[in-house]
Design goal:
alpha/beta; 29% helix; Spore Coat Polysaccharide Biosynthesis Protein SpsA, Chain A; six-stranded parallel beta sheet
């Protein structure tokens, strides 16, 4: 039904209508009533879900027991779920600073699901004390010393003041798995931004006690969070987290993988927008901690591998350093590169890039442009930077060479990768005919193209650098909404770019280019 409505009325209009309807329901008398505010001097009970994996548990507990407690009354329950490795008990029993209230429990192995371990821990917390907030963390969480204070300040403010949605569980972990942990909205508090999500991920999970008793335990099933999310959806209850991550996910291996249809492995979520400073690393470097990304460095991880996709981020290294937002800039080797030449052209020649690393990096996540912003501005703002300028252009540090033989030529690039709308070769030919434009060369076609019949001369580039030389040297270039258009803008060589209504407007990003709608 939603898809049909989107086709009939447009996705943007339908989204606005659904958002408004959720707000009306959330503020109505029919909505489930969750607690919005706590008593003064509230109590927190937090369980660490321990099972095997001593290398993660060691890092987790060492970082957890460096938490700045301030005036919070928090009790830590370390609950082991039947570990067989004797190292696990040794780590749990390690003596900690006396200001931390710690309870240690060892129980037989329960059902092979996260929900079973969570339920067991929550039952224990409910028996231990009358906690106002109860929750858990997995044993592969790595904590910033101020995670507790930031979580409570941001999330308690949101619970009290947010009216757009019914807010339930909350976290200090902003998951990178945005296709699964989908962001529904970004909001500001006096203490920092927070994100409302349809589901959140269970690395760190807190409930108000009264909310949890009303919403109930998880089903002990391998799809535990999915089942709970469906229940939340029924009541229009949303999860939320701090936009800045104060907890990182260390685990690339999970004991649950043996029961899952596909192991987590490289797909494991990591923290988006981690706190820039303040992380405390062990004196002996642990291979499981992403030290580069959790210091004052920007690590960019490109989700899409096209030339244009990389150029959309090409201005960030310079801005990161010139504004002082970050000390160093790295490109994650986990980025998608459709062609290794893109890595060389866009990043290896960029003087503001300090190198490449194997750690997970940050990505800009948004579903609409900010007011008065183009695509590149919005990416910059999403990654916590702002140089005060708008309508940024892509940047390239390759110095092109002039090809004298192309100085007075007009070139058409018929190639595209993902989407050219419903433009046809005939429409392009008609445009050139109606405007008395003679194309001297069109680029050699690749896998997807819209070549024209009015030009019989073909031109081939030997490399991306050679293609830059061609664009730089010719009198003018015509192309589709593809990497060529973004590359032309990066070379300060305005292209004429053909599009139609099927092209998402955010990709018409450059003021250097001229965009022509071929209806």
């Amino acid at each position: 039904m939603k898809d049909l409505a989107s086709r009939l009325f447009g996705e943007s209009l339908v989204k606005k209508a659904l958002t408004h309807a959720e707000y009306r329901y959330a503020t109505s008398a029919f909505a489930i009533q969750l607690q919005r505010e706590l008593r003064p001097h509230f109590k927190i009970g937090m369980a660490v879900l321990a099972h095997e994996r001593p290398e993660y548990l060691q890092v987790c507990l060492d970082s957890l027991f460096r938490t700045n407690l301030y005036d919070y009354d928090i009790t830590f329950l370390i609950q082991d779920d039947g570990s067989a490795d004797p190292k696990v008990r040794d780590i749990i029993e390690k003596e900690r600073e006396p200001q931390y209230k710690i309870i240690r429990r060892y129980t037989p192995k329960g059902h092979d699901s996260w929900g079973a371990a969570f339920n067991k821990a929550l039952r224990t917390l409910l028996e231990l004390d009358n906690f106002d907030i109860i929750g858990t963390c997995d044993s592969d969480a790595f904590f910033h010393p101020d995670w507790l204070d930031q979580t409570m300040k941001v999330c308690l403010w949101a619970k009290k003041h947010h009216t757009q949605n019914i807010l339930g569980p909350f976290s200090s972990f902003n998951s990178s798995d945005t296709s699964f942990h989908r962001i529904l909205g970004r909001y500001l508090s006096p203490h920092g931004a927070y994100l409302v999500k349809e589901r959140m991920g269970a690395l760190n999970y807190f409930f108000f006690r009264e909310d949890f008793l009303k919403l109930g335990f998880f089903q002990e099933h391998r799809d535990d969070e999915t089942i709970k999310t469906k229940q939340f959806r029924k009541y229009t209850v949303r999860s939320f987290c701090t936009e800045t991550s104060y907890i990182e996910h260390l685990g690339r291996t999970s004991v649950l993988d043996q029961w899952r249809p596909q192991a987590v492995g490289e797909n494991a979520a990591y923290a988006l927008l981690p706190a820039r400073t303040g992380w405390i690393f062990p004196e002996q470097k642990s291979p499981v901690i992403p030290v580069i990304r959790l210091s004052q460095n920007l690590v960019l991880q490109l989700r899409y591998g096209g030339l244009g996709d990389h150029l959309f981020y090409s201005h960030l290294p310079r801005i990161a350093k010139q504004t002082g937002a970050y000390r160093n800039v790295y490109i994650s080797n986990r980025s998608e590169f459709r062609d290794p030449e893109i890595r060389r052209l866009v990043w290896e020649q960029n003087p503001y890039v300090d190198g490449f690393c194997d750690e997970w990096g940050d990505q800009a996540l948004f579903d609409a442009l900010g007011p008065g912003c183009n695509l590149l501005d919005t990416i910059m703002l999403c990654l916590g930077m702002d140089d005060g300028l708008r309508y940024h252009e892509p940047e390239l540090y390759y110095q092109p060479s002039l090809k004298e033989e192309l100085k007075n030529t007009i070139i058409f690039d018929p190639n595209y990768i993902s989407n050219a709308g419903r433009i046809t070769s005939d429409k392009i030919d008609r445009y050139f005919y109606d405007n008395d434009i003679r194309i001297d060369y069109q680029m050699i076609t690749r896998s997807k193209f819209l070549s024209i019949s009015s030009c019989i001369n073909w031109l081939e580039s030997r490399s991306l650098e050679d293609f830059c030389d061609i664009l730089y040297s010719c009198k003018h270039v015509y192309c589709l909404v593809t990497g060529t258009a973004t590359l032309a803008a990066a070379l300060n060589k305005g292209a004429t770019v053909f599009y139609d209504k099927r092209i998402t407007p955010i990709f018409l990003h450059s003021k250097i280019n001229t965009y022509v709608n071929l209806k």
